[in-house]
Amino acid sequence: MSSKQAMSKRRLERCGLTVTGACVTLVAVLVVTLIVMVASHGLATFTADGIPLGDFLLGTTWNPHQADAAGNPTVGALPMICGSFAVTLLATAFALPIAVGSAIFVVEVAPGFGRRVFQPLVELLVGIPSVVFGLIGLTVVVAWTRGWAGGTGYGIFSGAVVLAVMVLPTITSLSIDAVAAVPMSYREGSYALGCTRWQTIWNVVLRSARPSLMTATILGMTRAFGESLAVQMVIGNSAQVPGSLFTPASTLTSILTMGMGNEAMGTVYSDALWSLALLLLGMSLVFILIIHLIGSKGVKAHA
After folding, report:
1. DSSP state, residue 249
2. How far, in whole angstroms, is CA 183 from its chain's centroid?
3. d(Cα 259, Cα 97) in Å, to the nearest integer?
4. What's the pLDDT tens digit per position in 73-110?
């Protein structure tokens, strides 16, 4: 090798190291900047505006333009917190059985159909914009709910149905990967003991894939918890603690999207909205932490 070729290789190595290192640094700076920005604005509600944290988390009235008996703006976030968790949990309950059942059929029953037909359909569902889901929910789900449940049709139930359809591709795709990742030797061992296919699926495949299926579920919940536009179109956007699944309610994201563009920066209302965003960010971090804990336990279980 000539000295010229050796210098060219060293230059290429340095260039690659510099470019990839710059990419990692940029991503790290963006993440830290985002967290610091949201935290600094969100904490201003408690540090600058003097609103107690307990009143913010447990208060049931959301009207930042109105003062309570103590003279503080009424920025109780409990109705939105309840709405966000209710919609997320119900949507997951709707989507999870369908996703797992689809994954079992695609991997264990008809893998050829899964690769050629089903998975392209799921990928198509992923690419549909949120506003399209919201329009379909507004014209179909809300009207259908109003027809048999009465009322306006807006509420947690309608929001959960729309969200279930939106998170279904995420949970289904990850569930397919989870079931497919179970070693074939596990199945062969079960068959050798005389178990049927469905006994093997229930007792061996699903148990082995349980950590990955839980990760798929948490990722779907993360997507549902942070969804805003489609939910805003069907939930009714009433900042009150939901009395039932069929009365108008609101979520953290729906109140954020409705209020952020209408308030000047630095006002109490704007700070309260940033606090909602901080709460949303905190919940997302909790979901991510749960995913890592499940992943580490799954690795230990298979070690």
Report:
1. B
2. 29
3. 35
4. 788 889 999 999 999 999 999 999 999 999 999 899 88
75: helix, strand or coil: strand
Quote the tokens at residue 174: 């990850």
Residue pLDDT, tens place only, 137-150: 999 999 999 998 88
The pair of structure tokens assigned to 288 is: 């991510």
DSSP designation for 74: E
Token pair 């949120």: residue:
130
Q: How far apart are CA 4 and CA 253, in angstroms?
A: 59
At 130, list the tokens: 């949120």
Q: Which alpha helices (H) appear in the chain, and where do they start and end?
A: 3-47, 53-58, 78-104, 111-113, 119-126, 130-136, 142-149, 156-180, 184-192, 197-200, 206-208, 210-226, 229-234, 252-259, 268-302
194: tokens are 């005389």
